[in-house]
Amino acid sequence: MWIYEKKLQYPVRVSKCDPKMAKYLIEQYGGADGELAAALRYLNQRYTIPDKVIGLLTDIGTEEFAHLEMIATMVYKLTKDATPEQLREAGLGDHYADHSFALFYHNAAGNPFTVTYIQAKGDPIADLYEDIAAEEKARATYQWLIDMTDDPDLQDSLKFLREREVVHALRFREAVEMLKEHQDSRHPY
Amino acid sequence: MDAQWRTYTPWRSPFDPCPPREQRAYIVPPNQFIQTQPRGLRQFAPREALRRGTLWPDLYSPYDTAGRGAQP
Q1: How many structural domains does chain B have?
Q2: Is residue B48 one of the residues assigned to a domain?
Q3: In A, which residues are within 8 Å of B8 by CB distance?
Q4: CA-CA distance, A88 to A108, in Å (whole number)?
Q5: Sequence-distant (≥ 6) Cβ neighbours of residue B62 within 8 angstroms
Q6: How far apart are CA A161 and CA A172, in angstroms?
Q7: pLDDT tens, A122-174?
Q8: CA–CA separation, A118 and A99 (whole Å)
Q9: Which of B11, B16, B21, B26 best probes binding to A when mutated, by most A CB atoms within 10 angstroms?
Q10: How far off is chain A from B44, nearest CA to CA, in Å?
Q11: Is A1 inside a domain boundary?
Q12: For an interface test with A, which of B4, B5, B6 has the most A Cβ atoms less than 10 Å from its Cβ?
């Protein structure tokens, strides 16, 4: 089970009215290497991985949901006071036609989220390598998002999220090292 | 047991419905231990290399299921 704290992991402040940025940020909401994909990927892998790394997957998978909430907050703030006409000008006319002001899990190009973005092979090494790759790709996405805004407050939150990808990638690489060494103490060979 | 295999015992609840399959096995292939392949590694004979898929014994991963000691 989870316990919810009604606050964001890191503050989200958006100081520039830029609805178009919401269209790009949604990549990290419902994109292939977004926070939803990350959370679902890690939490699902926990059942078929050695016990030693289950806790790591729980912790990081949970944190990804906290990141998802931060992205949602950014998108909401950037769009909530826009008129349909402004959304249209921002390239969000398609989104408004289908969802009005609701958020939806799709990527920056409008492709709906699909679980085919993630995999579970059941081979611990293969699964952890997917996790490492996903973290590096998410780090790159945050870089391109930071490049696309000049709002220092939005950049600040995005830089926090980018740094978490850097840390998570290292934690997963440490998990690989643990699994390389690990031998069941009950059956030494 | 083949040195590339690792085994672990997943936690088991007293209320699990099925008879226990205590041990699980996974393989750690040799590429995990080499960052950049050094020069001058031992080599298989050419004909054997063709059959095994690699020229170098240090990179060979037999996936010998008889030696894994447990099911995945």
Answers
A1: 1
A2: no
A3: 50-52, 182, 184
A4: 15
A5: B2, B4
A6: 17
A7: 999 999 999 999 999 999 999 999 999 999 999 999 999 999 999 999 999 99
A8: 25
A9: B26
A10: 25
A11: no
A12: B6
Kindly report the average pLDDT of chain B as a whole number. Answer: 92
Identify the domain containing residue B16 by its residue range: 1-31
What is the distance between the alpha carbons of residues A66 and A45, in angstroms, rounded to a whole number?
19
Q: B1 falls in which pLDDT band (50, 70, 90)?
A: low
pLDDT above 60 for B71: yes
Residue A73: what pLDDT? Answer: 98
> Would the pLDDT of B54 be above 80?
yes
Per-residue DSSP letter, B71: B
Among candidate residues A162, A175, A164, A161, the one with its CA nearest the CA of residue A56: A175
Beta strands per DSSP E along chain A: none
ipTM of the complex as predicted: 0.88
In the block, tokens 């006319």 appear at A93
CA atoms of B61 and A121, how far apart (whole Å): 19
